[in-house]
Amino acid sequence: MQFDLDLQSIQEMRHALQKAKEAQQKYLSYSQEQVDKIVKRVAEAAAAKSLELAQMAVEETRMGVVEHKKMKNDVGSLAVYESIKNEKTVGIINEDRTKKIVEVAYPFGVIAGIIPTTNPTSSAIFKALIALKTRNGIVFSPHPRAVKCSVAALKICLEAAVEAGAPDGIIGWISKPTMAATTELMHHRDIDLILATGGKDLVRAAYSSGKPAYGVGPGNVPVYIEKTANIQKSVKMIVESKTFDYGTICATEQAIVVDQNVKEMAVREFKKNGAYFLNEQEKVLLEKVISPFPGKLNPDIVGQSAIKIAELAGISVPVDTTILIAEETRIGKDVPFSIEKLSPIFPIYTAESYENAKELCVKILNLGGMGHSLSLHTNDDKVAREFALEMPVSRLMVNTLSSIGAVGATTELMPSLTLGCGSFGGNITSDNLTARHLINIKRMAYGTKEVNVPKPSYQNSGPQWGASNHVDEIVNQVLSNVNVSGSLDPKVISEMVNQVLKKYQMN
């Protein structure tokens, strides 16, 4: 009997979520030492299978480069572990004895982890590690085109965690993911936080779920080659970065902006590094392949080599071609070369001046990379600092490979496979996400200051109980009417009470 795939997927999700919730309740009692032992074991186990997982990812998704995906797996496992291993995430994590404030960490609970097809194994490992480090449970929804390799990575992580003492079910997943199951996962009452990495529609769905969510926006990253740059070195890094995993990292350079004073030299260096410059006819052919519909990227070119993309467009290129470049002057959704391409394709813009370069970079970012990243090659520190102050991005990579520099491989940025875009990009954080983003902190504060609290003034605050001379007079009248036997005339009492009430009402 054939069952509905959505129903199967939803039922699997609910079962995984129930197990994760039960496991997380047990995990709450674990000490920092126990947690750190588990995290270390998982990182080592994932790193040991790094190459195997990379091969599985390329085979299943038909995207990227095995050697480069292995590097991403290493960043997501060992580099992430090294960056978080000494962080306190359990119990008292900080104490200021002078200010008498004690900070205590506590987890969100159970997290929904959304995995993209571009980084299916490295993202899975990374999110599992930071969830374990913070005593959260996590249930994953892999991309349907990368489910086998993602689940393989998660099984490695779960098995290593359980062997190290973690409760079974602390990591869960949907092995037959559907949009219906993913949507219900994000809205489920037992989900306390969402980690969403994927397309803009999925990220938007995460933010509209009513749950706390970390989502990341697109990265239409401009790279500016400023006139003082070391052109030979800069161009080599740009080509290496653009061809890294065939452009699948969201922080990869997407558009070249070059100062007119060094353009000729830069073009020469790009050609030395295997770049193929398209003529006008070839450019038109490739535009149709990049974006068959205005503003929509053709998924068939994502993570593909320059040679394969050229073949799709019917363009003959040398066998050693690394990237495809076309001259461009326009920027817009109807300009295929100007959108985020996630592949080794570049438009090249000529900046007539420094101010013009800044304008071009902002326009490119406005098209789809606002808040994400910008790459700059310069030997003028003043220029770098000015860009840092003025550009609407969350990270600025200077004289390095933007793709892997943004995730912490060639810089001292926090190693991460989820890069926030801040308020520029509609995200809650501009950080490289890591373990500290998955804990809450409660604070115990002792009194340290003596204050004199003034007594309230009754002059303008309604009925003035006990402060009215009229009330005192009425009470005295009542007492004066007490006869010798100590009894009171009921009529007198009634009249006195009425007078008192009238006085209160008047006040």
Automatic annotation (TrEMBL):
GO molecular function: oxidoreductase activity, acting on the aldehyde or oxo group of donors, NAD or NADP as acceptor
Record protein name field: Aldehyde dehydrogenase family protein
SUPFAM superfamilies noted in UniProt: ALDH-like
CDD domains recorded: ALDH_F20_ACDH (cd07122)
InterPro entries: Ald_DH/histidinol_DH (IPR016161), Ald_DH_C (IPR016163), Ald_DH_N (IPR016162), Aldehyde_DH_dom (IPR015590)
Keywords: Oxidoreductase
A Pfam family hit: Aldedh
Occurrences of domain Aldehyde dehydrogenase (ranges): 11-272
Highest rank taxon of the organism: Bacteria
Lineage: Bacteria, Bacillati, Bacillota, Bacilli, Bacillales
